[in-house]
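> call design_seq(struct)
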């Protein structure tokens, strides 16, 4: 096969990988299968509760000793979270009160690329 004959196959493979990469990132971002993942800005941290502002409004979460917390990719503590931080929260399927299984936040108060659609 000549290079000209292989070019469509190579271009297809590159396009496929480019489309597949975001899907891999989404799967890798949620270590809690079956959990609901919400992304937004932390608006309150009080007692053992965290309130996250998302596109549809504010969502309250209970935080337990089992909740895994990461800040900037490093293990963190609930006390290190503060209003204004961007966060992604995995929670058990909605019940009367959502229980946070994992919280991933960043110290910077500005969202990463994709302003307004953090993590998408």
């Amino acid at each position: 096969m000549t290079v000209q004959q292989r070019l469509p196959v190579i271009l297809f493979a590159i396009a496929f990988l480019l489309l597949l990469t975001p899907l891999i990132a989404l799967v890798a971002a949620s270590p809690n299968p079956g959990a609901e993942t919400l992304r937004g800005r932390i608006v309150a941290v009080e007692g053992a509760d965290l309130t996250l502002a998302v596109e549809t409004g504010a969502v309250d979460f209970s935080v337990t000793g089992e909740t895994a917390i990461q800040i900037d990719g490093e293990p963190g503590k609930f006390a290190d979270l503060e209003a204004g931080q961007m966060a992604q929260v995995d929670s058990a399927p909605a019940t009367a009160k959502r229980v946070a299984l994992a919280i991933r936040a960043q110290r910077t108060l500005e969202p990463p690329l994709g302003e307004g659609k953090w993590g998408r």
